[in-house]
Amino acid sequence: MHLPAPDHPALLDESAPVCEFLAFRLGGEEYGVDILRVQEIRSYEKPTALANAPADILGVTNLRGIIVPIIDMRVRLHLTQAVYDAHTVVIVVNVGQRVVGLVVDSVSDVLTLLPEQMRPVPSLDSGFASEHLLALGSVGDRMLILLDIEKYLAASLHS
């Protein structure tokens, strides 16, 4: 499923289909990725390091015969140093023709968002270019930053 860009009229079209997102935490913020991109959620295990890899690439792991790069989203977003503990998980996502593991602080739940719960992203000076963000999701008092994970990781995954 391809979600519309944040300024796309479908985000404001209440007849548009609902979308489901896997909610996860990085530091004090809550993010979401399209549940259809998620292959599985795994406990964090130290990956095999690669020489000369960028700082956000922790290494690779063998996932049932597929070598999967593991990206630390905290490092990628220039957040405080990650603490790997019992809550740390790896979200395995499918982006393009690749499988990638994303290390996050924790996963909370799967949220179903109606079009009226998704708002366009204002211009921000953040770790994300606006084209990497789908929208801001609002559920009760929770605010989620909804990522277009394929666009966000495209530069890291050039083959």
Question: What do these coordinates show?
Answer:
- The protein contains 2 helices and 11 strands.
- With 159 residues, the chain is mainly β.
- It has a single domain, classed as Beta Barrel (OB fold (Dihydrolipoamide Acetyltransferase, E2P)), CATH 2.40.50.
- The strands form 2 sheets. The protein has a 6-stranded mixed sheet, with no helix packed on it. It has a 5-stranded mixed sheet with strand order 3-6-7-5-4.
- A hairpin with a 2-residue loop joins strand 1 and strand 2.
- The radius of gyration is 15 Å and the shape is globular.
Q: For the largest beta sheet, what order do the strands appear in spatially?
A: 8-1-2-11-10-9
* CATH homology superfamily name: CheA-289, Domain 4
End-to-end span in angstroms?
23 Å
- Please mark out the parts with pLDDT under 50 across 5 or more consecutive residues, or reply none: 1-14
> What is the C-alpha radius of gyration, as a whole number of Å?
15 Å
The level of helicity is under 10%
